[in-house]
Write a structure and sequence with these properties.
CATH class of the largest domain: Alpha Beta
Oligomer: single chain
CATH topology of the largest domain: D-amino Acid Aminotransferase, Chain A, domain 1
Shape: globular
Radius of gyration: 21 Å
Amino acid sequence: MHETTIVKNYFSSQFKLGILGGGQLGKMLLTETQKFDIFTSVLDSSKDAPCALIAHQFTVGDLMDFETVYRFGKTVDLLTIEIEHINIKALYQLEKEGLTIYPQPSVIETIQHKGKQKDFYKTHLIPTADFYRYNSIKELKSYPFDFPFIWKSAQFGYDGMGVKVVKNEIDIQTLPDVECIIEKMIPFKMELAVIVARNHQNEIKSFPVVEMEFHPEANQVEYVICPARIPDAIATQAQEVALKVTESFNHVGLLAVELFLTENDEILVNEVAPRPHNSGHYSIEASYTNQFEQHLRAILNLPLGNTDSKLAGIMVNLVGSEGYSGDVVYQNMNEILKINGVTPHIYGKKQTRPFRKMGHVTIVNKSVDTAREIAETVKNTIKVISTK
């Protein structure tokens, strides 16, 4: 007689999945919930958020307000996130009252504060850059650090915001007076990332190592390249470090682990994100199971999917062009659609501004080098401008 595993009926049922954050990550997650016919309820601060017209229920409210998050959580059966900037006290109270929340509030609390995150790495013997924590700019000035160094706001940084290279005393004067960390400048060859999924049964699967190329001014990812163009031994090392981070956090859901490959071929952890991540967008077209479906599988404690790539994949970020603000126009869209293997994703933000993330384009090809060449063509062809 065969044993039958009892699985909660999430599909075409009364089950309600709550999502904190209604941005582009939430929108792409909703594509997967629609595939499985899972009822969704989303909370976001903007009535014009990308999820607003797609979720079964959409609530406008402040993600940092205790009562708003708490009341929203009481209306759903399971709660997940697409952004870390949320009221953590409300999540702890909901968890105490029996609501299932993945990733767990304790994981989110550690990750949403860069100082606590770095302390976590140190405690768990996870390799990372040397750092110091400061409560204010006054304290930073009292205990100087050798120039140059990387300054990071302890909280609320994203997409390159809240991060600065500090070269001298003058640069310090421009920093906001907030709790912060500073890190030693690391000479590195490239930046890598590994996305790892874990469900409640401790099934763990990781995606291939990807390589990230950054915009020199905006400090945003311009290209994500999969597979990373690195030796197999380095890829194995990166995977091992990412798995150690996952096991240390003991999280449920996705964990995107950003890494430095130093000039001495050492792997250091930069930061992590407990959710789908920009470094995994390539997987929508290039992987057997994309990162958004995998996150859904993990938080619902379903079997994790195959993370292998079907083809090499390159992701190009579409950001607002400098000098343009207002109603968005995607210039030369027809030209990139003529190219084989090119798929644009438009996030649904009606207003553009310089360097705002407006979408991405995925390029797939049998050859990673050919895909990278096509990505360069795409980047130089499509422009995110405005009507004004």
